[in-house]
Amino acid sequence: MNLSRLASSGLLVSGLAVSGLAVSAPASGAECIQRYAECLVRASDLDTWWRRSAAGIDCYLDAVYCLRGAYG
Amino acid sequence: MSPVPLGAMLVLSTGIADGPPRPVGDFGGRWVGGSEIRVFDASVPAIHRIDRGTLGTTVLPLTGSDSALDPYGMAVPGDGTVWVLGDRGRFVYRFSEATGERVEKRRLPEPSQGVLTLWRHAGFFAVRLRPGEPLLLRATDGGLRPFSPLLSRSASDVTELLIANLIRCGSGTRRALPCWFTAGEPEVLLLDRDGALRRVPVPSFVTPPAASRPKRSSASEFTFPVRDAFLLESGALWVLANQEGDRTPLEEGSVRGRHAALVRPGRSHRVVALPSEARGILDATEQSLVVLLADGVIARLDAR
């Protein structure tokens, strides 16, 4: 099965992700949204649109992970 | 509806693994079929294979993954493999049901927040940044195709959009699968094999926050009524409560997962109080429940 042949251009998730922006899930979910906001601020400081976009997606996916754990 | 206390009705319990009970933070979903319950533990990673009769457990380690696996559910579509997500939903891994060895790893065309069994297919809940886009995709004919008219919901900002579109599914039958938005109304969406949806209102243990209580975060604008659902072949539906009271699961002092309700077409609901917080319903009949408690213990409860 070739899942990649339907790759969407709607979401930008590339190898340009900046690993330093990764947010680990807290033991308690209380910090999920705060960390998401801080992650976005750091992403916005990156120098190119591509790097900001990739880092922003990383922030979003980390926040999904954190919130799923907190609410589920 | 007056809850039936179950504290004295716990008839059998066992640790989730071969050792002592472990925290359930990495409970990654379950699958039920034949005589077996399978629970995915993303932290090991492993599949706990539980006999439905005795609750005896063996552990099948999943080997060969080169990134962290996500506790985003599991799919067992009948192709001899178990599908789970990895690296925050960017990849799907397939592991042999027989050996636990990695069979395949693929980058998904778009990140996912969940993977589930859609009968003979694997399904994916996409992560959405915009409203009005298909949420549920099905792996078929070599790619992912939208399945069902379920669309991402709108919200006032990106954080609320993220919360409003968290979605999960429970255990289904040959005909339907119960799904629900984590944040939202107390209702379950029954998804049939053609993708059609039917809304089923379910009991809620949420109470509105006092007007005098300060808003803690944008998340406190939401309520989180459903934690799990288990549909029986009879059409009856067990629903495990999530938020109980006025505090959301993110807030200090929150109470969650302490009641289960049996919703039956044309009949009154039956509500049972659980002996402690539960994470999920692993198996059920109209008379009993097998639940995963928050302390990692699996318990069979008499729910008559």
SSE run of chain B:
EEEEEEEEEEEEEHEEEEEEEEEEEEE
Major sheet attributes of chain B? 5 strands, mixed
What is the SS-derived class of chain B? mainly beta
Helix content of chain A: 40-55%
Percentage of residues in strands of chain A: under 5%
The helix count of chain B comes to 1
Oligomer: heterodimer
Mean pLDDT of chain A: 63
User: Strand tally of chain A, please?
Assistant: 0
| Arithmetic mean of pLDDT of chain B | 87
Physical arrangement of strands within the biggest beta sheet of chain B: 1-23-22-19-18
The CATH architecture classification of the domain at 62-164 in chain B is Beta Barrel
Taken as a percent bin, the fraction of beta residues of chain B is 35-45%
Structural class of chain A: mainly alpha
Q: Might you state the CATH topology name of the domain at 62-164 in chain B? A: Lipocalin
Low-confidence stretches of chain B are: 4-17, 19-25
- The share of residues in helices of chain B is under 10%
Describe this structure in words.
- The complex is a heterodimer of chains A (72) and B (304).
- Chain A contains two helices and no strands.
- The radius of gyration of chain A is 14 Å and the shape is elongated.
- Chain A is 50% helix and 0% strand.
- By secondary structure, chain A is mostly helical.
- Chain A has a domain at 25-72.
- In chain A, helix 1 runs antiparallel to helix 2 (49-71).
- Chain A starts with 31 loop residues before the first helix and ends with a helix.
- A five-stranded mixed beta sheet of chain B has the order 1-23-22-19-18, with no helix packed on it. A four-stranded antiparallel beta sheet of chain B has the order 2-26-25-24, with no helix packed on it. Chain B has a four-stranded antiparallel beta sheet with strand order 3-4-5-6, with no helix packed on it.
- In chain B, 2% of the residues lie in helices and 44% in strands.
- Chain B is mainly beta and 304 residues long.
- Residues 4-17 and 19-25 of chain B have low confidence and may be disordered.
- The chains are: A mainly alpha (72), B mainly beta (304).
